[in-house]
């Protein structure tokens, strides 16, 4: 590292830029340690659970698993800060494996504690989807823990635009047939064709936050049209990034049934999610529960 930093070309960098380059270089090698087999103290990955709710009742229907890196110097890093580095180090499948394993282990623990088995959806990278062994691995992991396939939902992102000859089509077909629901994430930001929705076993469209924020006149028409299409194709819609009651009400009036966003809850630690969302056994009580009522 001393040699690289001492190189003449580095002098062309502004000091702040140089520090940023050094920071990214370090973080990149730490990503390799984090997901590789080396045992340095570079922190660990943790999962946050963000409740997914039925809009009209406020009932929690499940959660999305969102990964965080508890970094020894930088604190809690969000995916935007490190997923690019995971990808450039070709560690996408390793990351997904860690997240899946964590989530399934957690689900088994909740089951053992007698908590309700609400499904958790896990985001997958394109590399995992294109790995022909994914379906077997996921189904084997569920079987080892005696978990029903219905507890796991998978999110594929619209940006990945999987091709017809991609192994992902077979993989998702196998998982869908086994009872694992597939969501199309970030819907409305890319160029998904009807043919694509037909070819992959997608059950739910997750409307991207950018489509509902702001929910102005133009966006309202768009959401209305997407909803009409979803009804025709027998797809559910879940709107992401709902932050205000107005947004929620407007989405409901457009026919959207499910949502996710800070209005309902931020992503929670496993313990917080279990104590709040999973502990609400009376389904008529909306989430979050009125102040003073929670355990
Ligand atoms: P995503 O799958 O679209 O996840 C939704 C993102 O929106 C999350 O960001 C969530 O914290 C955020 N969000 C939820 N509600 C609101 C809201 O009301 N307002 C605002 N402003 N944001 C909201 P996060 O956790 O930073 O994740 C970013 C992206 O990183 C995810 O987007 C997903 O594409 C990726 N990601 C996260 N966890 C994983 C993972 O475990 N594996 C993989 N492969 N990708 C992941
Ligand atoms: Mg997602
Ligand atoms: Mg999303
Ligand atoms: Mg999104």
TrEMBL record:
Residues of the full protein shown: 446 to 740 of 742
Protein name listed in UniProt: Diguanylate cyclase/phosphodiesterase
Domain EAL: 24-281
Highest taxon of the lineage: Bacteria
